[in-house]
Amino acid sequence: MAPPGSGGAPVDWLIVGLGNPGAEYERTRHNVGFRIARELIERWRLPTPRSRYRGLITEGRTGVSGARVMGGDRVAVLLPQTYMNDAGDSVGPARGALHVALDRLLVVHDEIDIPFGEIRVRLGGGLAGHNGLKSLRRGLGSTEFGRVRVGVGRPPTTDPDRVAAYVLGRFAEPPEEVAALVGRGADAAEAVLREGYG
Predict the structure, then answer these.
(1) Which of 18, 70, 75, 103 is most exposed, with minimal Cβ within 10 Å?
(2) What's the burial of 15, exposed, middle or buried (CB within 10 Å: 0-12/13-18/19+)?
(3) What's the whole-model pTM score?
(4) Which residues belong to the active site?
């Protein structure tokens, strides 16, 4: 992996939280990527996201202490506003404009094939039927981007309509457990920036 700042890219990392725009989706399982992206924005005290690349994006550095910047990776955090199934239409142009290598693109998303509460990180791999990831493959021309896969559990059915209703439904778990999951997802993203995909 290239060292931070190599290649003249404006940022070292592009972090993408997947979700759907609109208040009706805010607390759903499918939007856990948005929630983790917002947690990172808050942790790093990044500016309020602005509209660009068919999404909301902010840029800054990860190393903040009080009101002072203390170095750290240059990051952009993007929340596509295209709806999940078209997220690649936002992420592709953002990645191109920011000149980010695929292994420096980190996508945070829900994963029904992982039990609730578990977080898994990997570089590349399959799409597991996830429509947001399918759109990213179309928009990026590759699946070799990083992922923070956030376990939201699977309903006891394979019926596509019921699975869709499950991911678009709100968490049944207690709010404190969901908040802890969001925190662990943000921790996992920060660990990738520090240590790679190990």
Answers:
(1) 70
(2) buried
(3) 0.91
(4) 30
